[in-house]
Amino acid sequence: MRKKLVAVGVSLGLVMGVVGATSASALSLYEHDNYRGSVYSAWPSNYVGNAMNDRASSARSWGDAPTYWEDRDKNGRWLSVRGNIARFGHYRLNAWENWNDRISSFGYR
Ligand SMILES: [Ca+2]
Question: What whole-number distance in Å separates Cα of residue 64 and Cα of residue 26?
């Protein structure tokens, strides 16, 4: 099966995300605040992988508003925000928990 692919370039030239032609959305998770540290890029992801699980502290996204989940396979509590997030720690779950170092999967709905 031939899949039509669209390459989405990032301003810094550090990451190339490849997404299906049916959507122009793409997302990169960063290990640290302000888009620093290790990067994970995909569209979408039922699991962000051992290297990024519970470690994402910022994100850049393009296109549709992504939803982030605290567990694999889009389970658990979720957060949906359009655009970039410089600091997940600014988004609170409740009085004592925030979204820093918590994300395990993401997608679109
Ligand atoms: Ca982190």
Answer: 8
Say how many domains are in the chain. 1
CATH number for the domain harbouring residue 103: 2.60.20.10
- Distance in Å, CA 33 to ligand 1 centroid: 7
Query: Which structural domain range is residue 12 located in?
Result: 5-107
22-70 pLDDT per residue, tens: 567 899 999 999 999 999 998 889 999 999 999 999 999 999 999 999 9
Q: Quote the ligand 1 centre to 16 CA distance (angstroms).
A: 21
Helix locations, the chain, DSSP H? none
